[in-house]
Amino acid sequence: MVMVKLGKINDRNVEYIKVNDLSVLKGKLPKDNWILLAVADIEQTNKIHELSVICFDHYVRYVCGTGSGGTKIDDYFDEEYLIRLFRAGKEPIDENLDDMPMTVWSENFEEEFWFATCLANEENIELNKVVCINLTDVDYENEILYYTNNTPIDFPLRANHGNRVSSCF
After folding, report:
1. Cα–Cα distance between 47 and 20 in angstroms, integer?
2. pLDDT tens, position by position, 132-160
3. Containing domain of residue 12, as a range?
4. Beta-strand runs (E) in 27-146
5. What CATH number is given to the structural domain containing 159?
6. Would the pTM count as exceeding 0.85?
7. How many domains does the chain have?
């Protein structure tokens, strides 16, 4: 599998990869300060923990999950951060949560894509790359390519925000 560069939105490079075997991601992901847009359905729940480990090893800063497994993406990434805290002998108290990536999810792909490219933000850290990792059978490459080349000015206004869920836990 090859990571494909699909364009740029708001000074953020957008890349895409559809994978079945997550080991192909090792060494292909950015080294730091990037946004993950993970796409998974309930059927891929067994791969989400492995994805969280790989992404944390590559210093992901923001995690946007989508698909029917979006809530599981949110949960597994939060859990992986806590596992790493405990292994380091730290407690989940405020000062130890400063480096925790924000996790958000929605079942709506367009909404989550918009959020990753337009709204995801870290204070004092420049996030200039969105990597979409697709674990599903559906290929989103053409849809992302369409969005990166035809993003209307009202893109943020078009997304349905009714089920936006954001968490730090």
Report:
1. 9
2. 999 999 999 999 998 888 765 545 444 44
3. 4-21+29-167
4. 34-39, 60-66, 102-106, 129-134
5. 3.90.190
6. yes
7. 1
